[in-house]
Amino acid sequence: MKDTEVSPTSDAEAPAEDFVQSLARGIAVLRVFDADNAQQTLSEVARNAGIPAAAARRFLRTLESLGYVRSSGRQFALTPKVLEIGFGYLSSLSLHDVVQPHLEALSRATGESASVAVLLDEEIVYVARVPTRHIMNVRITIGTRFPAFATSMGRVLLAGIPATEREQLLASATMPALTPTTITDARLLEAEIERVAAQGWSIVDGELEAGLLSVAVPIRDGDGTVTAALNISTSATRDSVEYLRAHHLPLALATADDIQRDLRRISV
Known about the structure:
Oligomer: single chain
Helix content: 40-55%
Strand order of the largest sheet: 6-5-4-9-8-7
CATH superfamily of the largest domain: GAF domain
CATH class of the largest domain: Alpha Beta
Shape: globular
Distance between the termini: 47 Å
CATH architecture of the largest domain: 2-Layer Sandwich
CATH topology of the largest domain: Beta-Lactamase
Number of strands: 9
Strand content: 15-25%
Number of domains: 2
Structural class: alpha+beta
Radius of gyration: 20 Å
């Protein structure tokens, strides 16, 4: 198939002739599979990726021959081999291997799920997690994404980037009312993010999903730049905001300090 030259959609401003549309479409096919859509038909993949069915068929068959996709009847699904693609990024950061034992210890100490995420455009992406109870309608795994504006980790990560960059990012983001308490007003959200930046942590109560309560703290590199966020999530029926602040927040801050210390030791 001949590659069509189109203008890039990112802010990188790469020359149009350097943009390979077929590669972008192939990546789009991989991205349509998630925890809620683990298996899809050809027509579903084409619709969700926004490409013609004929192109989707070629991409799926190519990915299948390379071992990244498997088929069963009319259904297609990813294989574990796709983890190789993202694992290179995680390994280069040394992040996953460093944080995982700390998350396990934090989860044991709190009896709750503990996670680490990074910021990707206007979303957070989970890069490490120790789950306990199933407290959300959506199953969270490594690679799961949520809108940054409505999550505790997202607000910590947004607080860690320059104000001008944050303003541009949020201006292009869609901020729907996910629950009755979700902050969707840009001025109110900016005020909340500034408060998070000043205090060094964020608690979000029922804004991503009703009944979900979480506290997040930043993870910084050796220069003090926020590179990731750590959170503890629980149910509002079990714990209160006051309990999270008094009990879970100090544990989260201590865990983040331990992770930062280990990351600095590795980078030396």
